[in-house]
Amino acid sequence: MGSQVDNSAMPKQRRRTAQKLAIEEVLSRVDTHITAEELHEIARKQQPRLSIGTVYRNLRRLVKEGKAQQVTGPDGRLLFEGAKGPHHHLRCLSCHKVVDTTLGSDVIEAISRQTADNSGFVVKEVYVEVAGFCPICQGSLELEARKAAAAKK
Q1: Residue 71 and residue 79 in contact, taking contact as beta carbons nearer than 8 Å
Q2: Per-residue confidence band for 72, with pLDDT thresholds at 50, 70 and 90
Q3: pTM: predicted TM-score of the whole model, two decimal places
Q4: 38 in helix, strand or coil?
Q5: Residue 146 has what DSSP assignment?
Q6: What pLDDT does residue 10 have?
Q7: Rounded Cα–Cα distance for residues 133 and 142 (Å)
Q8: What burial letters (b/e) apply to 24-52, b meaning 16+ CB within 10 Å?
Q9: For residue 87, how many other CB atoms are within 10 A of its CB?
């Protein structure tokens, strides 16, 4: 009678497949927020047999492991980026571009403190998204306003 080892309590080792490495590499290389579909298109250049399901599965795992961050875009689509440490986002209401920004720890502490004081809520994490118009869209809006004003004359 042979002895059996119970491995159920041991942490499960994740395989580092070529497909997962390609996904991680794309996330580390892009300097913007991308959809799973966009990531899939880029990563398929290295891994032609990569499926969209594999991309979604790995993105969920990477977010859970803290190696990627997920943001919901204004149109409801999920956007992803490689984990870059604490930061916040600026979102353009016109072109829907999402850009990283940082806020001082004093600002975050003030938000946490005021939220806790006003609601009794125990704050564990603060994520800030500021919505407005990016410089390119500001220029387009100003141009449209000038055209509209000129048309009224």
Answers
A1: yes
A2: confident
A3: 0.63
A4: helix
A5: H
A6: 44
A7: 11
A8: bebbeeeeebbebebbbebbbeebeebee
A9: 14
Q: Are strands 88-92 and 129-132 parallel, antiparallel or unpaired?
A: parallel
> Lowest mean pLDDT: which of 12-26, 46-60, 68-82, 96-110?
12-26
Is pLDDT of 5 > 70?
A: no
C-beta of residue 123 within 8 angstroms of C-beta of residue 116: yes
Token pair of 44, please?
């398929």
Say how far residue 153 (Cα) sits from the centre of its chain. Answer: 46
Amino acid identity of residue 55, one-letter, is V
Mean pLDDT of 32-61: 94
Token duo for residue 152 = 């009224």
Tokens of 20: 């997962």
**Average pLDDT value for residue range 66-76:** 83
Torsion, CA 97, CA 98, CA 100, CA 103, rounded to 10:
110
